[in-house]
Amino acid sequence: MAIIVDKVQKRKDIALACKEIFFQNGINDLTVSQVAKAAGIGKGTIYDYFKNKEDIVFEIVNILMQEHNTMMHIKLANASSTREKVKFFSSIFYDEEEKELRQLYKEFISISLTNPLKEMIEFQTAHTNHYYNWLLVLLNEGIEKGEIKEGSQDLACGLFVSATGMFIVNSVTNTIDDLKLEIDKFTDAIFDLIEVKQC
Q: The whole model's pTM is what?
């Protein structure tokens, strides 16, 4: 009787088997041979599940993003205000739990700036749009609840890009001592302007 292989699960298993190698070597130095060895399969078998090494990295990112999204839904469900939700939303840039995801993000930014691969830019665009739209939903919910002023949803892009920008600046300079503090201060300043004052 033939063994039925769950190709989706096998793809995940292969990606997870080489995750540590990726974090040690980075995207550029990761080889298909290393992935095959870590996963305990033949090199040719890799191509049954992945087009190239970038595809393997995309799968690692997708797995980590799914884990992040699950944690974020829990945090957001426990948040008491839109302000607090937006702060949680930015925690990806400084929480210790998100360290691996940040390392991947830095690699992606570096490659996209120095050697922009079409697949990578499309992949990053899809993820950026997902998170931007999620932030937009949070702000719209805050407006509907009467917590923040009409039109506050127009700040979604600025809030998203500001937190991302602070993360990038913090990654390449010594100008931000406490990234969480700076993002929170910025978020508080915005919310001081947009929150509906309760009488």
A: 0.81
